Amino acid sequence: MSKAMSRHSDAQTIPISFTLNGRLQELDVEPHELLLDVVRDRLGLTGAKRSCDVEVCGACTLLVDGRPVSACTTLAFEVRGKSVLTIEGLAENGKLHPLQDAFIEHGGFQCGFCTPGMILASKALLDEIPNPTEEQLKHFMHGNICRCTGYKKIIESIMAAAKKMAH
Amino acid sequence: MQFEKSVEIQATKEKVWNFIWDVDRFIACVPGCKEAKTVEAGKRYTATMVEKVGPFKVEFPTTIEVTEREELSHIKAQASGADNKIGSRMKIDLDVRLAGEGEKTSLSFIAGVDILGKLAALGHGIIKRKADQVLDEFAMAVKQKLEGDS
Amino acid sequence: MLRRFRLEEPESVSEASELLGRFGDSAKVYAGGTELLLAMKEGLVEYERLVNIKKLGLNDVKQNNGTIRIGALCTHHQLELSPVLQQALPALVKLENNVANVRVRQAGTLGGNLCFAEPHADPGTLLMALDAKMIAEKNGSARAIAAQDFLVDAFETSLAPDEVLTAIEVPVRPARSGIAYLKFGYLERPSVGVGVAITRNDSGIARASVAVGCAGPAPKRVAEAEALLQGKSIEEVTRNLGQAGEIAGKASQAITDLHGSQDYKEHIVGVLLKRAFQSALSQC
Fold first, then answer.
1. What is residue B150's predicted lDDT score, i.e. its pLDDT?
2. How far apart are CA A152 and CA A157, in angstroms?
3. Most buried among A39, A50, B137, B143, by the most CB within 10 A?
């Protein structure tokens, strides 16, 4: 039977508990709430962006159990029992992640709008393939679109980070 | 989108012409069309068009205006409707011609169909096929109804 | 924002089927949501209830006696990684690896892809060429539907309203077989897709299957093209490729739209058929 509780006769809520950027988070969500809205509006983490809203551009990319998802098209209750990583959770104790360092050093962003999603997707890539070929990188990152950089600097940033992280 | 359809009916021109203006029987031939009403006989009618493509359903309350009429030979009409739920509008320009001798009438029509709004997101191809299907079924239904009751 | 709906989470196929039967048009099966939620966001469809079937399992891949059984809830990503498929159906693994993008592959399921029946999709076309069967279940009964009878039209399958697609069964090809799927497109979704499966014998090509998709409302097997490519020597089949391509192009029911003109798509079908055939041939 459904695990959802009924508060009123017409508003069904689902209590969810998940790890957000390493810390336990507990919330009640309605079935129709989208992960992107919960993360941005209820949890105040606005790194993930609503851009195309149809899972094409990657600006809303979050990592759920280490894997990239389109938060714009993920129902919030789906993260119950899972771990969620947003861009805000990447740096540890103020120390930037090697990917963040690399994007800064190699000019992997201009306006920055696609960048949170781009970096999180890169992290998922390098977690899966620590030393990717350019072809593997492009295939994995195919769903993250950038209008500013022309992608060359993004590829350089990721490759540089991969080198650093291998040591 | 433009469609041209033509159907040969074993019936006199008079019979076909009268059938067209018999709103209830005529509307029954249009797939998905219901609740036809005469607002002004010969001039204005209303109906509801309900169409479904897979899970996508639209309901267009439609107004049909007859703009030209030549006895026993030619009708021009415009049908328009909006489905506010789905945020789409529909417009059809219809040009109907009757031709023939004696017991054989050729009913042909040109339909210019425009679908605007969200429904267009389904893809031009899908809508075109659906419209084509509806018009084919319609032409067949008219033929059958007329040839069926002699 | 989506419109509010109630979530149902059945724990058996029977329960799911019962819910679907009870609520009819106002309820919809929900798995990965990669197509459904988009349509709901657009306001093109509206449901009072979503029936989350992800508690039904249905997400493993097994090979039994010459049949590969793929759980309908396998995500594209799971299929990319499946050792069974990598060994027995590498062409399907390659296809799955190229569906949409990494995020859609993570959430989207093969079953969902087939049931939504979006015309611009890949798996249905190859599965059709592979004589796959869709297993549909409800309230204790199950039936197997051939892919070409399952994928009926754009956004339309032959699944009954209270049926749940639980598995896809693909017969293992005999020895000396080759399979290839090629697609073409420059928009977000593929514009043309061609799947070819051939089996050789000592005199040439014993059997050939050809399916075309994406260009028209639903994928289609092209028996007329297959006739030109099987029961013949390789030389003769190779000579027939052009004509087979033309036939397959016409059979694709291509229409002119943003993805390309009808002519163009029909032409691309022919090109992909040739290349897919060569690729399949090189495997056997």
1. 46
2. 9
3. A39
